[in-house]
């Protein structure tokens, strides 16, 4: 079956996530004290994250609006998407959650002075940096969401209304050529919002990895990939339970 470029890019990304998860877990289990190895591995994963967004941005030059539909994702995955992907603040929330879980699971050792350098051992300085990143990311999310809301409302303005009607009612049916400049400009503006949302997602992950120690960064990346893949696979299972077509990603 032929798939669109966006779908092929997504399938390759999911496959890469599984491979990267195995590599991260292996390094975490075999070399937890080797900070240089863990640091390089974390940086390698962030670079792959950036490469994925760069591929998406190149595809978006031709059809950014298609990425918003995310037809290659299951309904469950689409239910929590924000402008073509997860909210950047989800990554920060994941760090807070992991910090609380690790601290609770090793509370006795913590009071005894034992430190494992996991996410339960975030220092006060690190927590302040994460909180600062959180505030800035929320502000950036709201700014991007506001821009998208304005564009969505603008579809009812006079020029876009005329272009849309010209497109749907006449088009080239009678051999008439119409220049849909307003609609094209509108689509390009939405494409830029998708690009900015992807860059914010990347900036947030980079910021967290820079704040965390190498082992903490690997813990965070492992948890993020597990969460992503489990939601993807759960959505596929629900598709099959309901007898719906589910492409093997």
UniProtKB/TrEMBL annotation:
A GO molecular-function descriptor: sequence-specific DNA binding
InterPro entries according to UniProt: Seed_Dev/Stress_Resp_Reg, TGA_domain
Domain of life assignment: Eukaryota
UniProt-recorded name of the protein: DOG1 domain-containing protein
Domain DOG1: 3-241
GO biological process: DNA-templated transcription
Pfam family, one: DOG1
């Amino acid at each position: 079956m032929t798939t669109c470029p966006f779908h092929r890019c997504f399938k390759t990304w999911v496959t890469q996530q599984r491979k990267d998860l195995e590599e991260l877990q292996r390094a975490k289990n075999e070399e937890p004290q080797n900070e240089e190895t863990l640091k390089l591995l974390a940086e390698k994963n962030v670079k792959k994250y950036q490469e994925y967004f760069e591929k998406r941005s190149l595809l978006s030059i031709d059809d950014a609006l298609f990425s918003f539909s995310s037809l290659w994702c299951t309904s469950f995955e689409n239910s929590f998407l924000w402008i073509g992907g997860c909210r950047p603040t989800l990554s920060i929330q994941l760090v807070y959650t992991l910090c609380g879980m690790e601290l609770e699971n090793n509370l006795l050792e913590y009071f005894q002075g034992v430190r494992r350098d996991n996410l339960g051992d975030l220092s006060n300085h690190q927590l302040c940096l994460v909180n600062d990143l959180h505030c800035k990311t929320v502000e950036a999310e709201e700014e991007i969401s506001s821009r998208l809301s304005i564009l969505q409302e603008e579809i009812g303005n006079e020029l876009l209304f005329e272009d849309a009607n010209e497109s749907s009612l006449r088009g080239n049916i009678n051999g008439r050529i119409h220049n849909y400049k307003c609609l094209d400009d509108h689509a390009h503006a939405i494409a830029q919002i998708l690009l900015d949302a992807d860059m914010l997602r990347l900036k947030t992950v980079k910021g967290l990895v820079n704040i965390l120690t190498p082992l903490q960064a690997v813990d965070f990346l492992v948890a993020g990939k597990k969460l992503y893949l489990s939601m993807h696979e759960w959505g596929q299972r629900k598709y099959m339970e309901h007898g719906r077509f589910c492409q093997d990603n």
